[in-house]
Amino acid sequence: MPEPLPETGPYELAELARRFNRMAHEVRELLDNRTTLLAGISHDLRTPMTRLQLNLEMLRDDASPVRIDRAVNDLADMNRLIGGYLALARTTQAEAKTRFDLAALLQTVAADASVEWSPVSPCEVVAGRLALQQIVVNLIENAQRYGGGTPVELALECGGQSVRVSVRDSGAGIAPDQLETVFRPFYGWRHHVHR
Fold first, then answer.
1. Which residues contact 7 (CB under 8 A, 6 or more apart)?
2. Prediction pTM value
3. Which pLDDT tens digit goes with each residue over 124-155?
4. Alpha-carbon gap, residue 33 to 167, rounded angstroms
5. Rounded to the nearest 5°, which phi and psi values hold at 94?
6. Where is average pLDDT lowest: 21-25, 83-87, 185-189?
7. Average pLDDT for 100-108
8. Burial class of residue 59 in the structure, from the number of CB atoms within 10 Å of its CB (0-12 exposed, 13-18 middle, 19+ buried)
9. What sign does the dihedral 54-58-63-67 (CA atoms) show?
10. What is the distance between the alpha carbons of residues 127 and 81, in angstroms, rounded to a whole number?
11. What are the angstrom distances between the C-alpha of 14 and each of 5, 7, 21?
């Protein structure tokens, strides 16, 4: 990337330098976004692909309809993920919000991740369903990977105006010098999000 031009001198030259610097900054952001997008696709597809591979291997010995349904659902998840990323790349807008039962979504996520889940009453929310699912899946994976083997808890608190999803483990926690870094895309460390 070119070094920023000094925005000094006669007005016309200073304005030209400002425009050049702005354009160079926008190009840098586009390249960063493209890199983040590609990293996101590979990162987020890894989990459903692993589940799909496991289910296909187990189908050799147990051709149950449940395993076939799980494999079909994993393929559908991968298609939705790819579609969402392509739409994001085309429009730079977030996933469209829909109304869905968050409790049912979390129950499915917990079952896929082998995390204990206590069924709760339906909890309707309006949000980006796939994005929310991927956030919870990533948090569970991080808790399982970096929680020191401690049990992972998934919980849902559904209030009138707010909803809280919690992913907890009893590991060592995040080092103080990493607290800011964990919010960078695809940073490989355990972290918690409350919303």
1. 14, 17, 18, 21
2. 0.54
3. 999 988 888 888 988 898 888 888 888 999 99
4. 28
5. -70, 165
6. 185-189
7. 95
8. middle
9. negative
10. 15
11. 9, 5, 10
Structure tokens at 15: 């304005």
Q: Which residue has the tokens 């996520």?
A: 109
Token representation of residue 91: 């429009």
The C-alpha angle with vertex 170 and arms to 166 and 176, in degrees rounded to 5, equals 90
Q: How many CB atoms neighbour CB 102 within 10 A?
A: 21
- Within 8 A by CB and 6+ apart from 48, the residues are 74, 75, 77, 78, 81
Question: Is residue 147 a contact partner of residue 170, using CB atoms and an 8 Å limit?
Answer: yes
Nearest to 78 by CA among 108, 48, 54, 106: 48
Query: 32-82 pLDDT, tens per residue?
Result: 767 777 777 777 788 888 888 888 888 888 888 888 888 888 888 888 777
Asked if 122 contacts 103 with a C-beta cutoff of 8 angstroms, the reply is yes
Distance CA 181, CA 179 (A): 6
Amino acid making up residue 2 = P
Radius of gyration of the chain (CA): 21
